[in-house]
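Usage

Read records sequentially. Each one opens with the input sequence:
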Amino acid sequence: MTRVAPVGGTAVQDHVALAEIELCGELIIAASAARERLSLESIDEVLRVAEERRGTGERRSAGAGR
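and closes with the structure output:
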């Protein structure tokens, strides 16, 4: 028996999955607009890797003083 989610029912949102889908979309757009293969640095820029690393480091530093 196959179960199907009810139409108009409550939707469960997975915010992590939605963020990953958004990043994949941004990467696809960047790749399709590029004339050549994206470099690793370009991919990191699109995926905001440096921003994430800075944010993680700041959180660690804030929690280290406790």
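Summary fields computed downstream for this record:
- The helical segments are 15-33, 40-46, 49-64.
- DSSP finds three helices and no strands in the chain.
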